[in-house]
UniProtKB/TrEMBL annotation:
This is Uncharacterized protein. It comes from Callorhinchus milii (Ghost shark). Residues 103-187 form the Death domain. Residues 2-80 form the DED domain. One of its GO terms (cellular component) is CD95 death-inducing signaling complex. InterPro entries: DEATH-like_dom_sf, Death_dom, DED_dom, FADD. GO terms for molecular function: caspase binding; death receptor binding. Coiled coil: none annotated. It comes from the Eukaryota. Gene3D superfamilies: Death Domain, Fas. One of its GO terms (biological process) is extrinsic apoptotic signaling pathway.
Length: 201
């Protein structure tokens, strides 16, 4: 409820010029017909929520829009409400090839090693072009975070079926064998550490 109160307050403080500028900036993610139907700030924020571009735990897109239209006062309020981002996945242990490892560790390895071919991997994982555009707009000039968000979207889509084995297989399908090797090496280290812990217990 507090989040909705915040959005209502933010929407009321947007000027007509602010609204038109924000609608213009959203032209890649909101269709023309929907943009034309938006007549006030609340309508825009509701549309962003419908498109999964705005949520209580994900205000990055809104903050970027507010910054782009020079409403730093409103951006500061939204950021203060959101607090430190807690986006790191606390996913359960996943199995692959006799080894065990956490998806978030695999994600870190991929983000650190994939380079310019990350869009190829994202599409192979089922991320749509629209989702890619949204992610790139939310996190401009931050390729690592763009890759991380794509991996999180994949994890969200797959749910319990998301595992490191599928991730490694997709990396190899993209000819990203070195990245796949690095992921498997990290998984192996985790397995060895767990084995030593169990042995010494």
């Amino acid at each position: 409820m507090e989040f909705q109160v915040l959005l209502n307050d933010v929407s009321r403080q947007l000027t007509s010029d602010n609204l038109e500028a924000m609608k213009f900036l959203c032209q890649r993610v909101i269709s023309k017909s929907k943009r034309e139907a938006i007549t006030d700030g609340l309508g825009l924020l509701e549309t962003l929520q419908e498109l999964d571009l705005l949520a209580q735990d994900d205000t990055a897109y809104l903050c970027r829009l507010l910054g782009d239209v020079k409403r730093l006062d409103l951006r500061k309020r939204v950021q203060a409400f959101a607090g430190p981002e807690r986006e790191r996945l606390n996913s359960p242990v996943c199995e692959t090839g006799g080894h065990t490892g956490c998806l978030d560790d695999a994600f870190d390895v991929i983000c650190d090693n994939i380079g310019k071919d990350w869009r190829l991997l994202a599409r192979r994982l089922g991320i749509t072009d629209v989702q890619l555009q949204q992610i790139e707009y939310r996190y401009p000039f931050n390729m690592r975070e763009q890759v991380m968000q794509c991996l999180k979207e994949w994890h969200k889509m797959k749910g319990k079926d998301a595992n490191i084995g599928n991730l490694v297989q997709t990396l190899r399908q993209c000819k990203l064998n070195m990245v796949a090797d690095n992921v498997e090496e990290q998984v192996k280290k985790i397995f060895q550490k767990q084995h030593l812990t169990q042995t010494s217990a």
